Amino acid sequence: MGRAREKPVRRSVVGAQDRHAALRRIPGEEGTAIDYDVLNAHLGYLIRRVQVWIFQDFIRTLADADIRPAQYSVMVVVGANPGSSQISLSQALGIERARLVRMLHELERRRLIERRRSASDGRSHALHLTGEGIALLATAKALAAEHERNLRQRLGAERWQSLLRLLDGLPS
Amino acid sequence: MGRAREKPVRRSVVGAQDRHAALRRIPGEEGTAIDYDVLNAHLGYLIRRVQVWIFQDFIRTLADADIRPAQYSVMVVVGANPGSSQISLSQALGIERARLVRMLHELERRRLIERRRSASDGRSHALHLTGEGIALLATAKALAAEHERNLRQRLGAERWQSLLRLLDGLPS
DNA sequence: TATTGTTATACTCTATAACTATA
DNA sequence: TATAGTTATAGAGTATAACAATA
After folding, report:
1. Residue A30 included in any domain
2. CA–CA–CA angle A61, A64, A66 (5° rounding)
3. Same domain for B75 and B107
4. B162 → chain A, closest CA residue
5. Do B47 and A50 touch (CB under 8 A)?
6. Which structural domain, as residue segments, surrounds residue B78?
7. Distance, CA of B134 to CA of B112 (rounded, Å)
């Protein structure tokens, strides 16, 4: 859970210059100072707070494409691995297969993804992006890159790079 | 979303030696290799994966005290700031006040926390731990410290320390 | 028998809106 | 009128169990 944040400012038709407002906010410390005690010594707490903070910017930035983080991860992996099955996608991304079913229903309804019957195994589906899916993924990747540049600027290039290096390959 | 993980092994009466099983697992790479494409270059994705991984161990470790991460953060902060109001707690922890209401209902039902009418402001509640709450918090802190030691060992002391240093004080 | 996709259920957490009682 | 706490609702996301079709 991140610290306090003034009014999430539901973005609607706000221009790109306001897109990363949350990353500029100074949270906490409004009113009486609160003692966090041991919380700030827990890596899990700190990492959770920062994760929520990053995701808020990601969600806001990708809202233009109407794509949420989990949907983005599915689109990216299907795009890079056309024909993969739901079970392998589920395992790769750590999404429960029951949950993935509903996500794919939605993405299929929006004509971004297709489920084709596998030729080799009648039980499994081969997942593919549609033309629209490929186009939307390109847009989403561009927005995600914009988010990433902004995040890098907010954190400072050094800290950003260090975090990438320290976190890549985990859990191990 | 973390990568794949074999069967979460719902802990019930398993001994402490099995408590951190998840932190020892080698996830992913079971079956055909999947291309993660740009995902591993997104700090948000990496940090989310690690956060979920850490929380799974935290939840499993604190299950003995029947305390979830958000409940732990509330108990810790109320313990360190007796008399605080729900609104200041909500702002400090980034928990919606509507959500906090239901959490406090549950903690009050379990006689861990008390809501007392504030003398100075009839609208607000002064939050306090009960005797049982203080005792349970001590147990929870000990379990959390055990989790933290294990995490430190899994990550390596250097990486653990670097992450703490890089993440503390964020978002800023 | 085991696996893939599916449906269903329960619970946690987030986001909002609206209400009440106090200020 | 604003604020603190509350209730209610809708939607993500997680965790499980059970089922049909296929292997």
Report:
1. yes
2. 100
3. yes
4. A166
5. yes
6. 66-140
7. 8
Whole-structure pTM value: 0.84
Q: Is the CB of B161 inside 8 Å of chain A's CB atoms?
A: no
Count CB atoms within 10 A of the CB of residue B16. Answer: 10
Q: Is the CB of A109 under 7 A from strand D?
A: no
Here the tokens at position B132 are 């049982």
Beta-carbon separation of A5 and B94 below 8 A: yes
Residues B4/B7/B12/B15 CA torsion (nearest 10 deg): -80
- β-partners of residue A117 are A125
pLDDT per position as a tens digit, A99-113: 999 999 999 999 999
Distance of C1' in C12 from CA in B44, Å: 22
- Cα(B128)–Cα(A29) distance, integer angstroms: 21
Q: Are residues A47 and A29 in the same domain?
A: yes
Helix axes A131-155, A43-62, angle to 10 degrees: 130
B152: distance to nearest CA of chain A, Å? Answer: 9
Alpha-carbon gap, residue B28 to A167, rounded angstroms: 16
Least Cα separation, residue B145 to chain A (angstroms): 9
Nucleic chain D: which protein residues 5-44 of B have CB below 7 A from it? Answer: 8, 10
Residues ≥6 apart with Cβ < 8 Å to B55: A44, A48, B69
The answer to whether B123 CB is within 7 Å of strand D is yes
Judged against a pLDDT cut of 50, whether residue B72 lies above it is answered with yes
User: Which token pair is A37?
Assistant: 């005690």
- As given in the structure block, the two tokens for residue B141 are 């802190």
**Do residue A76 and residue B44 have CB atoms under 8 angstroms apart?**
no
Distance CA(A107)–CA(A137), nearest Å, equals 12
Task: With respect to residue A28, please indicate whether it lies within any of the assigned structural domains.
Answer: yes
What type of residue sits at position A119? A
How would residue B20 be classed by pLDDT, with cut points 50, 70 and 90? low
Identify the pLDDT of residue B15: 33
Q: Is A101 part of a structural domain of the chain?
A: yes
